[in-house]
Amino acid sequence: MLGSLRVRLPLVFLAGILIAGAITTAISVRLFQQFAHDQAFAKLRREANGIAQLYSPASSYGNARDKRAPSTFAAKTLELATGDRIYFVGPRPFPGQITGVHRLPLDTIDWTSGRSLAFEFTPRDAGRTYLAVASPICLTAKCSTPGGAIIVATRKTDVSHSVSALIERLAIAGMLGLLVAGLLGFYLSRRLVRPVLQLSHAADEVAAGHYAVEVPQNAPGELGHLSERFREMTARLAEVEMMERNFLMSVSHELRTPLTAIRGHVAALLEGVVADPELRQSSLETVELETQRLERLVGDILDLAKLDTHRFTVTTEEVDMAQLLDQAYDRYRDEAHRRGIDYRQEVRARPVIFSDGDRVLQVVGNLLSNAFKATPDGGRVSLALAQRNGTVHVAIEDSGPGIPAEARERLFRPFVSELGGGTGLGLAIAKEISAALGGRIELASEVGKGSRFELVLPALEA
Q1: Element (H, E) at 6
Q2: Do 317-458 and 221-308 have the same topology in CATH?
Q3: Euclidean distance between CA atoms 216 and 195, whole angstroms
Q4: 317-458 sits in which CATH class?
Q5: Cα separation of 413 and 432, whole Å?
Q6: Rounded distance, CA 317 to CA 353, Å?
Q7: pLDDT tens string 303-362
Q8: How do the domains of the chain map onto residue ranges?
Q9: Within its chain, how far is the Cα of 431 from the centroid?
Q10: Which CATH class is domain 221-308?
Q11: Which tens digits make up the pLDDT trace of 240-272?
Q12: What distances in angstroms separate CA 362 from CA 75, 386, 393, 431, 433, one per listed residue?
């Protein structure tokens, strides 16, 4: 259960929020503690300064030059008004009507400095730690000889209580925040994990060979992109499986036809059925032709395998392109004459390049073979050679049915044949070989009027 992504995501989400909340709470409490202490000392300082000013006239009473009446108040009354305790530290009590003030030992603070002091102490009569501020009682204007100090103190626990209240409120807010975060994390985990589980199930189906699977629709963000790519992948896999099935059917047919012919002629020769020398010669020639056909088919399959595994090697030699096109042209002259096809050759330049002549001839031959397959009897096929802008162009044009735009991309894939016959390897091999030679194949076609395949090679010099 804990290994499920649906459970682990909310737990990690909550753990992150909990850690962030704990760190934030610790920092907030520390800052509030410091703020509470600063505010407490500021309040005590104001009260101590005010009470010291009240006591200062009383302490100076009896001076012949001071005709003011002594101040009369009770410390208990001030303590009730402020909520704090009032102490006095000094050498003598105040004159006048002063009652209820608590006295502290002289060594409690340095009261002779004449400065306001903030400190913590534990009175004997209280038994608790107090925060306190001492304000001097000045006998002179410059307060050079203070008559003592008034100390206003408040319990330290009162400040801690306010911090505790803050912690309680933060804890309540944190629990509510965790509850909301937990619900949100649970929702997000379901929202995110559901498409992942669907993709996982779809992957299992694809691994079992079932490509008609349901892929999550409208998944959020990157999951939507992944779902779209997965959908394209399954479509490609289904297409590849169909092409492989078609390839096996085509190859089995292509292999069976010449093998059947070879077997029949060889059996006739062995059994002595063919006694006439001319018929025997014709049978042997048929066997040779069918053997060459098998050799070409096996060679195409081997070339494709080498190209797929990047074990295809290319040699470099001086290639006379005009002479090479003559060889390619002559291979199909008899077929063109037999089928009444208008077969033409046009040489506009006679470039000499450094490339693999056998492979270039193989590409041109595959393109010509494809053109003759697409062209009906009585049609037209042309072969042209030109050179421009540092490249050599070999164009093969036919008057076949043309190729629709949506079929042009898959036309150069292995095992795809738009003509309904053959293995579908010729154009795929031609494209890969042309790329290995540093060139490319360009296609222009119009449905109902024919197609134009153009081999473009770099005119490299030695």
Answers
A1: helix 5-59
A2: no
A3: 6
A4: alpha beta
A5: 10
A6: 8
A7: 766 666 666 677 888 999 999 999 999 988 888 999 999 999 999 999 999 998 888 998
A8: 5-162, 221-308, 317-458
A9: 33
A10: mainly alpha
A11: 777 677 667 666 766 777 788 888 888 888 887
A12: 116, 19, 15, 11, 9
> With a threshold of 0.70, does the pTM exceed it?
no
Could you give the CA distance from residue 56 to residue 140 in angstroms, rounded to a whole number?
9
CATH architecture designation of domain 5-162: 2-Layer Sandwich (3.30)
What's the CA gap between 149 and 68, in Å, rounded? 21
Tokens of 317: 């030699």
Report long-range pairs for 32-41 (Cβ below 8 Å, ≥24 apart). 32/162, 32/163, 32/166, 33/159, 33/163, 36/159, 36/162, 36/163, 37/131, 37/159, 40/131, 40/154, 40/158, 40/159, 41/118, 41/131, 41/133
Question: What is the torsional sign of CA 242, 247, 248, 249?
Answer: positive
Which range has highest mean pLDDT (3-12, 33-42, 272-281, 397-406)? 397-406
Tokens 């062995």 locate to: 270
Instruction: At 72, list the tokens.
Output: 């009369």
Residues in the chain: 462
